[in-house]
Amino acid sequence: MRLITLTPDSCTLTSATAMPRASGFLWNCKMMLHATCRGFVTAQHMQPEPAKYSHAPVVEGKTFMLPETAHYAHHPGRFVYVRDLVSQRHFSVPHEPVRRAPKAFTFTQHPERLEWSVEQDDLDIRWSLVLPVDEAVELWRLEIRNRLDIERALRIVPYFSVGYMSWMNQGARFNADLNAVIASSVTAYQKIDDYFKNHHLKDKTFLTCDRLPDAFETRREDFEGEGGLSDPDMLRAGLAGGEALYETPAAVLQFDQTLEANETQVWHFVFGPAFDEAEVACLKAAYLGPEAFERVCGEARAYVEQGRGVLAIETPDTHFDAFMNRWLARQVYYHGDTNRLTTDPQTRNYLQDALGMVFVRPQSARESLLYALSKQNADGSMPDGIKLYDGAQFSYINQVPHTDHCVWLFILLEAYLDETDDYAVLDAEVDGQGVRARLEAALRWLLKTRDHRRLSYIDQGDWNDPMNMVGWKGKGVSGWLTLAVAYALRLWVRLSGETQPWAAEAEAMNAAMNTHLWDGDWFGRGITDDDVAFGIRRDPEGRLYLNPQSFALLSGAASEAQAERMVQAVAAELETPYGVEMLGPPYTKMREDVGRLTQKSPGVAENGSVYNHAAAFYIYSLTQVKKGEKAFELMRKMLAGVDESDYVQRGQFPVFIPNYYRGDFHAHPRTAGRSSQLFNTGTVAWVYRSLIEGLFGLKGTREGLSVQPCLPAHWTEARATRQFRGSTYHVTYRRGGTPGLTLNGRPVVGNVLTLPEQPGVFEVEVGLQ
Amino acid sequence: MRLITLTPDSCTLTSATAMPRASGFLWNCKMMLHATCRGFVTAQHMQPEPAKYSHAPVVEGKTFMLPETAHYAHHPGRFVYVRDLVSQRHFSVPHEPVRRAPKAFTFTQHPERLEWSVEQDDLDIRWSLVLPVDEAVELWRLEIRNRLDIERALRIVPYFSVGYMSWMNQGARFNADLNAVIASSVTAYQKIDDYFKNHHLKDKTFLTCDRLPDAFETRREDFEGEGGLSDPDMLRAGLAGGEALYETPAAVLQFDQTLEANETQVWHFVFGPAFDEAEVACLKAAYLGPEAFERVCGEARAYVEQGRGVLAIETPDTHFDAFMNRWLARQVYYHGDTNRLTTDPQTRNYLQDALGMVFVRPQSARESLLYALSKQNADGSMPDGIKLYDGAQFSYINQVPHTDHCVWLFILLEAYLDETDDYAVLDAEVDGQGVRARLEAALRWLLKTRDHRRLSYIDQGDWNDPMNMVGWKGKGVSGWLTLAVAYALRLWVRLSGETQPWAAEAEAMNAAMNTHLWDGDWFGRGITDDDVAFGIRRDPEGRLYLNPQSFALLSGAASEAQAERMVQAVAAELETPYGVEMLGPPYTKMREDVGRLTQKSPGVAENGSVYNHAAAFYIYSLTQVKKGEKAFELMRKMLAGVDESDYVQRGQFPVFIPNYYRGDFHAHPRTAGRSSQLFNTGTVAWVYRSLIEGLFGLKGTREGLSVQPCLPAHWTEARATRQFRGSTYHVTYRRGGTPGLTLNGRPVVGNVLTLPEQPGVFEVEVGLQ
């Protein structure tokens, strides 16, 4: 049996142990849920700040979503114990916490739901989860089928973690009227102001079922007894029905159920946060039961379908197709439609997530651009984060000044204008100031924050957050940012039609980079406060950084000869079987003039990892210089799955691209490639753009759809369906036949399909050499 | 077999399951360690802010020490797996994580060390821990004896939790030169300032042994495999020796050891935090091995002995004697010598912990008084916390303004002057201002912060921290604080010899209380911003508060008749088998004019719990009105142990008094009495003072030692040895014989033993009716 099967409609894993961290995710506008194949679940909802309703067993630190989460016995999860009352044996679904090896196991991510199936002890069990499109609540379905021709006596015990809610007040009881375990708490606070802030919080967690349980328990420790989570005392003895009084709550129900020969029984559950019991009653009425479950599946499916994007491909690589046609667009849509369920996204993330939406729902991208500009500072700079509601607070990283945020306005703008031709946006007004004026103010701020060499100050960081000590004294500069500013300037020249002073400044900055940071085979990363260039050949660690090379290809700083050397250097020093590392060799100790980056674990996060966001930008830049072969190779590595052992090494389940794979490949091959499991990443917008505009070369222009592909040479034929400004283009790429372009069978001069008078469906043939 | 045996030299528990949370603690000037009988350990060291080196499996929230910690499989601990290589069976010591029921078990708190002994599978295992007196490091000894007359082949696997160290950098490896597992991390930070702050942090955790292991492992998850912590895969297969690369570290060693018939083998371990490997080497040299272990035991014992205090008693209640003669003084000493290992103790805690030191090392109490005064504000008020070093930050609760801190200066002063007669302290200067002037400034501030009725404003809280909405608008008053101020004024009149205006103000405040808050049978707790009296008869919840009654007895506000009614009301409404509740009935829902208190879980923390600090003050006030019978009764309830089932109900191990026992006795008898397990509490200074000055009536005066006991009537004889101003008094109390007092056989007129010309040893006889 295959370990992993990927189709556009589902991705299935057939082992809970081969890739124990393999995970999928669901979301809606109010919550996000991340589940491992073994049944551990991390969920957060927005009220409006992110909060949890199923907690760890200790007071958790507030932090961003962490990579490579290590699971442990009491990690929050959603489990069902099944005990055969005759044989006295038990197991649990999906796999935790009992961990008995099943006879058969599948974990399936559908676009809109998660599903586990387990065969064990002659039972078939299906355990399914779906989220409504606009409510923070989990809908679960449990189906148990008796495979035998005899009657079975079973004890079915769903166990939903609640965990440590609050040191101030916590508890749980069974509410018979609602047929629900309701855990209650008071979010801890000490200052009066916080009382008023916390007033509206949903401090309850509930579990309700469409069938009456035979017993229940609300106290975690009492449920477990000496047997612990893997062999709970009460599973044997029966649930005791206790009320949790300041004791760690759990929501546990017991159904002692006889199953006739071959009979199937079904249960539905709703689990989630609530403000009060009245809300539990409402949620129960809206979401509990078989009809509600089916209805929500349909609604959730329809919601995800809205994020199908503008491209469908058919290539010799069906695995690639399945991922790109469904899962990549799904991840792009998740980012753009929810802003990662944060309330103060970093400005660069916000703008790049919007860039993904250019290809999904361009109106959203336009709104995001204008909303971001509404937060612009008076001096033209952009804030470090975009507060999405009044009263949002800047989280920790957004309290640290970074200098790159303005750049991303132009990168988003280019993608948006090329795709939509909505140049009217430049004449829009935001809070009394025109977009054009605002964008030029941003450019002027970027020009102002340069040193005498015309290199851009880095302050406490640029795109690379943790590079926080290069320029904190006010003198250090960023080579990458200098190139990015030059790129932004050139974009503005093209998009605005205004040449000066922007074009000259771009040229000057590219020249400055060549003067001060060209290191023979690549561009250096920057120059510190103390005038020390870094990211250069003589550095034993961190000698080659990927980002400056990518942007040198885009900004025009690199000549063709330089480009060749850079690409070769990257191949030699940064490419690994798992993709291209962000920098190399990774830092193994603090370098005080670079900063926090160098204290990160080598090979993880940005420090020498295969940081997919950077890798995706490199891929994009390669497509811009028509190095499609290499771009495809790196894109393919990013998806993993060349063979199944590759997935196993990475622990990666191909329903999303993680923010990084472990790097440090040469020093630590054991861990290299391992997935961070984090699905929040600016990567996906760029992979999608690289695929559409780069590899398949279907990019918008003022005149129409430009067709300039750079497909890998070994693809003799490929097809793409591109939605563009209301029309559908069915494009067939063939290698080796007649070169050139035809539209509905007629040859096209040049490589632009000019806009039709009426939108329609068109057949396009592309002959490749 | 007895479940618990208490002596002055040890306290032993013979079951790991009867009282699973039973816990003991060790400390030194740099760290504190709290261990449960089952082997879970919470340790923190000061650098100088509290930090951990053995962590939970997730990023923990920074918070104060929490009550009633719920343990879970991966709670940090120190365990030893023992696997018989022939029978293939395994167990773990002390009890977690395998939890196999042992043949015999003991957990023993000695004053200076902890020791577990387990008999299982024909092995005797002893597992012992001691801390050096001035280093943050744990010294462990493992002794295994083969009880059989045949050779045994064993696999011994000590497992020390390291846990999730940092999202920024973590890992572990075995350093063969040091024979140590060394886990490394970088404390996570994002701001540059924090880099410099974190510079000196001990970010490593190490485990070293005086014997060479056969194998090791540093990766928690790999060690466990599918078997989990209770049946780790590697215990069977042998440890694989991996390096942890950003994986959750653990320190695990493997010793495959043959034990001859009846042979004993011994291992020593050192575990703790370190800055670098050089420090590991130093700590290893200083503390590893049998000699070091024995030496440290001796030094630690000598250190604890310095805290023996000034009283040794011999009564018909030997359990009471054992606790009071050793364990209470030990806990008093812990508080006073370490300030609870905080860096910004709340001012009232700091002053009361110093009050305990009056009876242990009076010089420290003097220093604390003067140090506290050095932090006095210009307006005479005291800050909410006392910063113990430059750069200490006010923790959360100390950012909330409370109005009672000044009061405790006078309460400490009284105890200090009575014990030492060091009235010269009043003439000392603190930062250019005399102590007398500072104290009067404090009084004036207290007088200034009263309303027109002469009732004291409560602001956002008084002694009762979470009563934060009574007076946040600036009008609400505290009945308790009014009485406490009156008490402080009267103390000052007595101690300073200055009568006015203080005596008149005290009288006026007592009168104001009687006018505005006498409720017929007791004093009310306060009046809110909106002029609503509370803590009164008509309140359905929180109708009777203990603290105002205690202080009314001390301040003189209560007439004798009122005192009788109050004591009766307290007995009727607040006394429970587990002591006297702080208020009753507990609040079950928010009362917005009282505040956070009412949102606390009913029966825990202050909300209707047996809050021992308040109970101790009540006991003290009872002794001041010579209600010794009731005082003793409540003191005895505070210690628990009337019979063993009482300990079991409370889960309390009699080596410390916890800050609270669960209350809400009438509504929730199941959980009532349960110990918070927190040994940080202002309780102990007051119990000690009540014992010395109250029950045994051996209180200092200007002339000498006053003898005015109020022992329980059923004690026909009791003895006490009292150290006082350099002399030793052996006091024998006898009931029923000749009343009166003799010194070395000679009758004494009055009840004061005037100071001898030379300190000496004196025999005192007290005849009681």
From TrEMBL, chains A, B:
InterPro entries documented for this protein: 6-hairpin_glycosidase_sf, 6hp_glycosidase-like_sf, Gal_mutarotase_sf_dom, GH65_N, GH94_catalytic, GH94_Enzymes, Glyco_hydrolase_94_b-supersand
Pfam families reported in the protein's UniProt record: GH94_b-supersand, Glyco_hydro_94
Keywords on record: Glycosyltransferase, Transferase
Residue ranges constituting the Glycosyl hydrolase 94 catalytic domain according to the UniProt record: 312-697
Keyword Glycosyltransferase tagged: yes
SUPFAM superfamilies xref list: Galactose mutarotase-like, Six-hairpin glycosidases
Domain Glycosyl hydrolase 94 supersandwich: start-end pairs: 75-287
Protein name: Glycosyltransferase 36
Lineage: Bacteria, Pseudomonadati, Pseudomonadota, Alphaproteobacteria, Caulobacterales
